[in-house]
């Protein structure tokens, strides 16, 4: 009998570092800018998205590690066993590679868009008459907003605003050397643009300012100047202990965050730099900002490519062919002849956004607000849109005398200021507003409407994987259900009472609620699948999520693989699990789908020897979601919805267009096979359009599944 080899599942080689894995994800975002199957303006947009993603990563993840490094905290990370400094070195190495790749793409795309009469040019490349117009624009619109900041014994090094572009200026007069910094304020648009003979030209505002910089320093000679941008720590601790009013604490925190420690400096490269000047200036900046050389990034193009969004907003009106074909989310056909509540009384409703319209979710709150039978509305809010119809409906409900309880999560990162304002507005309207649980973020997506009809109380519950945000629902893929299931409604009631009052976590019948319960139940379900496989040989787990970092979950998935269970993981972003390790994870397949829409739904399925278990959740399998957040995982009990979600998972696993699979060396490769092209997001769009068309024509339904019908159409093409 062959002795079974035992593997140490704590071996650091069996894990990928969380931060490096995230940088690999952002590289996949940049790959979309390189993909010539995407329309040209969308490729520019992916460059902008990559920059925005990286800014947040630097402000939060890198900032936290730098804090540990500066405080000489040498605690090892749980998976790779790296110190904070080792992680910072690995991040810098990978990030410098990504930075070079991003700006190489930018220069290539500049040439591509020029073929379509779109030109990103420098000030001195514009004709003289246009330069004169820019001069007028500078003195009328920009000059009054500029504040040159001299640095000397009487004027200390200034506080440089986070993510703002600045000009560093070397000056001289009569042999005396001086330095100054000029912040460039964020105006409405990043560009001065004009059209001429069917050609569209864009000049960065900072380039215009640089060309007239001498007007700020009369009597001095400009020896040299360069553009730079500082990124600051935005991951400051919120001191909740002893707080009488979390609203006030958050407002103070927002002020403090503006002056966080610097974590990165970016320099715009120029051909005419005097290297001796620039080297000394950079050393000076690094010292003043408390940064190391690894925190310094040179960029071969304009700083802050998020500004490309301003150009795209202008160009899409003239070049609609260079954007994705418009897609309007489809309003579900079954709701065209009835309302959400009447249909929910008959059966559960399933919504797959952005393919299905978000409108039924909005109507769920709006109709409840206007229905005289409504007694109460309870809802959690994490991120909402600027002119949220959900907020408006909740206000209406309160003003009409209904009991409205809203949990507004004030600690939703980078939405704190918005949520503070929403909390105040809802309170003024008469809503009972709560801010969550101490030291926990409430990330759950749940709403409950309570009505009284015919002498009985009826409860209607919406549960989802994504935010109650009508804007992001257009480009985030999410799922949700509306149900009147009594067991789920009872759990929802207990959940809201837990949030608003003083009690321990209730014993739920259907919902799994973190902290801890989601992780613990998921690990139990994996163990059940292992035992079912040993007994029946048909073990199979499928999970779709944004990120996987929980070591406890990864270890259990390794155990499942070792037992022979087939594991398919669809993970858009961070994945600390390493597939394909002999004896450890050879039965695990990991793919990442990055495309037009941001994959955001979380789906967890277990074959369970044919007695399948299927859950949707607001939570990823991340350490923070498991222990520092209030999250909900909920079962899919409706047989038809279960079947539809399984077909959706099947499409994801067959994607050979936008899917990349993870290799044992932690690199990703596009799925390549000889099968007909399958673009999962394109298929879901087509499905929604087909069903919308079918509803309009009242065509008889085929007995085939929607995926089989769609495959037949594709094969005919």
Concise account of the structure shown:
39% of the residues lie in helices and 21% in strands. It is of the alpha/beta class and 717 residues long. Strands 18-26-24-23-19-20-21-27-28 form a nine-stranded mixed sheet, sandwiched between helices.
Distinctive features:
717 residues; alpha/beta; polyphosphate kinase like; Endonuclease, Chain A; nine-stranded mixed sheet; 21% strand; EC 2.7.4.1; polyphosphate kinase activity; PPK_C_dom2
Architecture overview:
The strands form 5 sheets. Strands 18-26-24-23-19-20-21-27-28 form a 9-stranded mixed sheet, with helices on both faces. Strands 10, 11, 12, 13, 15, 16, 17 and 22 form an 8-stranded mixed sheet that branches. The protein is built from 19 helices and 28 strands. Helix content is 39%, strand content 21%. Strand 23 (602-606) and strand 24 (613-617) form a beta hairpin. By secondary structure, the chain is an alpha/beta fold. The chain has 3 domains: 12-322, polyphosphate kinase like; 333-510, Endonuclease Chain A (Endonuclease, Chain A); 513-683, Endonuclease Chain A (Endonuclease, Chain A). The model is unreliable at 696-703 (pLDDT under 50). This is Polyphosphate kinase. Belongs to the polyphosphate kinase 1 (PPK1) family. It comes from Aerococcus urinaeequi. The active site is at 443 (phosphohistidine intermediate). Keywords: ATP-binding, Kinase, Magnesium, Metal-binding, Nucleotide-binding, Phosphoprotein, Transferase.
Total strand segments: 28
Beta fraction of the residues? 15-25%
In spatial order, strands of the major sheet run: 18-26-24-23-19-20-21-27-28
Helix share of residues? 25-40%
Overall geometry = globular
- The CATH superfamily of the largest domain turns out to be Polyphosphate kinase middle domain
| Low-pLDDT residue spans | 696-703
Q: What CATH architecture label of the largest domain applies?
A: 2-Layer Sandwich
Radius of gyration: 28 Å
How is the main sheet built? 9 strands, mixed
Binding site for ATP: 53, 476, 572, 600
EC number: 2.7.4.1
Active site: 443 (phosphohistidine intermediate)
Domain Polyphosphate kinase N-terminal: 15-120
